[in-house]
Specification:
Number of strands: 16
Strand order of the largest sheet: 2-1-3-4-5
Structural class: alpha/beta
Radius of gyration: 24 Å
Bound molecules: flavin mononucleotide, iron/sulfur cluster
Distance between the termini: 79 Å
Amino acid sequence: MTTTVYVPLDSAAVALGADDVAAAIRREASQRGESVAVVRNGSRGMVWLEPLVEVATPEGRIAYGPVAPSDVPGLFEAGLLAGGGHALHHGPTEEIGFLRRQTRLTFARCGITDPLSLPDYEAHGGLAGLRRAMTLDPAQIVDEVMQSGLRGRGGAGFPTGLKWKTVLGADATQKYIVCNADEGDSGTFADRMIMEGDPFVLVEGMAIAGIATGATRGFVYLRSEYPQAIYIMNRALALARKAGILGDSVLGSGHAFDMEIRVGAGAYVCGEETSLLNSLEGRRGVVRAKPPLPALEGFMGRPTVVNNVISLASIPIILDKGADFYRDFGMGRSRGTIPIQIAGNVKHGGLFEAAFGLTLGEIVDAIGGGTASGRPVKAVQVGGPLGAYFPRSLFDTPFDYEAFAAKDGLIGHAGIVVFDDTADMLKQARFAFEFCAVESCGKCTPCRIGAVRGAETLDKLAAGIEPDRQKALAADLCTTMKFGSLCALGGFTPYPVMSAMTHFPEDFKPAPMAQAAE
Ligand SMILES: Cc1cc2nc3c(=O)[nH]c(=O)nc-3n(C[C@H](O)[C@H](O)[C@H](O)COP(=O)(O)O)c2cc1C
Ligand code: SF4
């Protein structure tokens, strides 16, 4: 009898030694004369347990982790292949609290299937959304997406159905679907995880988007820092083409749709949709003024859907189960589920997909388990480098676009980075200005100049030079950047700066030495 053992091929697992663990398992099995099939799956998203090894048993999959190659002989000795007890044994994977408490819709297959097996994909519900879409008119598909309440997961939270409707209504001989896989936000990895762990769901979502809007070509703009995702996506495209999911007639429907991977060179601003389009066209990654909207004049001046990976990967389940099913999850105007990425100084870092509405406190304390250092949580930055720092006093904020905006914050791509009480919020605020200065595309003055002046101002504050004046100047610069910048890089840098100044005023007092010298 052959036993199936799963060892993730996800970059996080590989960085922690998964390839060596897979090799050690194969070696040990062969030395013992055991028949073992090692499947390289996606990650389950419990990064602190990676490399997480799972063994298929009649009672379901049994989890072990984090496994080092040197643990492998001992694991076999303990009866790994039968799910035997061991210090690294966590019991049935699905029963691990972090997984059990999730609502996995977009990530339903991630970590379960072989990412590059189409039969496995179909056996777990893959292609059902595309097959249903093929029975609908384009306008009906767009309406289904609109009714689902799905909002863009890339950061701005714009209704996906509305964007598609604009592209569908545009009159053009050529339209495009562009998937934004630049994933530049700090603490985020949901796009990477799904591209590595369930690439066909993105292909399926893009094919549906193509059929819905009349676009026949698609691009995935994928950052160069993700070589594993680039490799897996390219393999998946080749397999999908061979199976007729991509090509002149998608699954024999008569709709043409094909797509390719384009690799970005690593500028944060190239995640902004108009910079991305410039980069995709081979130009410098500079922000374009809007209007015209990319939906009307996007790639090569043609109507273009630009959507984040998670927005597009959520489409198949919406089409498969229907708009009502998806919309029933969530709160307020934030419908469906959101893959929250928990990172930074946290005990249980990883990806947690849940309906909107969990409070920040639940996410950090109950799910994340508090800090990895064991020290008190001081601040949590939500939404990437342009997101606000939230103190404990705001931990009752529910994960919802409007609730975060009401507290001068944003959800962004749903990455949260935890800091303990050793964090210096003045340094973090300075870093926000510095980041903006380094990553600015330079097109508009408030961002190009404001970010540099902002960093200088906070340097003077740290040195104790006229501290009150510097604080007022920093706030003034923030107002100019917020209201005068062309895009959200300059426009949102004030969020981390002002939240740090507002919620952690004690860190913005000059050092006693400097005060004395004044
Ligand atoms: C500076 C900057 C960086 C951005 N980076 C990303 C990114 O890495 N990935 C992404 O999907 N959206 C990013 N966005 C948002 C995109 O401009 C755009 O709103 C998004 O791709 C639209 O897709 P969605 O509606 O599915 O979210 C960024 C925006 C700005 C201003
Ligand atoms: S805000 Fe910054 S990144 Fe955005 S257009 Fe202006 S200079 Fe470029």
